[in-house]
Amino acid sequence: MLKSHEGEEITMTVLEVKHLKKSFGSIHAVQDISFEVNAGEVFTIIGPNGAGKTTTLEMIEGLVSPDSGEIRFGELDWNNHGNTIKKKIGVQPQSSAMFDLLTPEENLNLFATFYDKARPTEEILQLINLTDHRNNHVKKLSGGQRQRLAIGLAMISDPDIIFLDEPTTGLDPQARRNIWDIILQLKELGKTTILTTHYMEEAEKLSDRVCIVDQGKIVTLDTPAALIEKLTEEREVRLSFLDGTDAAKEVCLFAKDLDSVTRTERKDRSLKLWSTDPENTLYSLFGFTKEKNYHVEQVSIREMSLEDVFITFTGKEWRD
Ligand code: ATP
């Protein structure tokens, strides 16, 4: 986020996408996608397999031409300012684009020769935490280290906007976290990152805004907190009882009659219910259990996550 002289936050749009469409034969990969990306933010696109995320990214990166729609980087568009846009953006290359028999340092130096202006290799090696491996052949690097090098190669021309398409897919949790650290460092450097991921936790942790795409369309777009907020009209409350199944059955019947309770599910001595007013629902339930002298063993109100948002908006279970 930029600040004015008076300290006010200024939002500057660096990318504007309007009514983007792309079909491959009868497959409508991208049906109508519009969004804006602000300077300095991590903007994440998530969605089920085949939702159109990669196609969207590739159109914005200038690799695939849209059937219709507009892509503008400020005043610049691909038809008239392709070379200038190429200097402003960095795209994480596929692993196959790296030279396996060269070292990370040599790969970075080689990629640097493609540009008029490059960020010093030394700085990039530090940023991607590969200084200790600078002289090892790329073919000897782990999956996580290769992915870090791929981000480094996207950074070599010191672009303002960096595109990372599933940079952590297939990596173990520690290797994933190492990539998260780099994305957060890019943010500190004032870069804008456009990310796709299959990992909900990643989207929730890293993103300023998340765009959920399904069947080539945006189903919702907002900050992770605002998306979760939209769902908190109804919360899941869980209770279990020391007094066994009969107690749970009786409390379940009582809960069903409360106006705030929209749904109940009971299994043995555990009860799950969904309430529009969880606090008052719990007061009523505790009044009832006290009157009956039942003993509550456990009680919780479940935290909502971005995964709940995904399931609500796409109707699909989330799979990593
Ligand atoms: P994933 O999460 O699996 O990577 P995605 O959201 O990135 O999926 P895309 O790769 O954009 O989805 O694909 C969207 C749809 O377009 C899919 O049905 C895919 O099979 C199809 N598709 C993508 N590229 C091509 C192509 N070059 N030729 C034909 N069909 C394509």
From TrEMBL:
> Which terms does the record give in the GO molecular function aspect?
ATP binding
Sorted keywords for this record are: ATP-binding, Nucleotide-binding, Transport
Concerning its family, UniProt says: Belongs to the ABC transporter superfamily.
Q: Which Pfam families match?
A: ABC_tran
Q: Which residues form the ABC transporter domain?
A: 15-240
By its UniProt entry, which SMART domains does this protein fall under? AAA
Stored PANTHER family: ABC TRANSPORTER ATP-BINDING PROTEIN, ABC TRANSPORTER ATP-BINDING PROTEIN NATA
Q: Which CDD domains match?
A: ABC_subfamily_A
> What name does the UniProt record give this protein?
ABC-2 type transport system ATP-binding protein
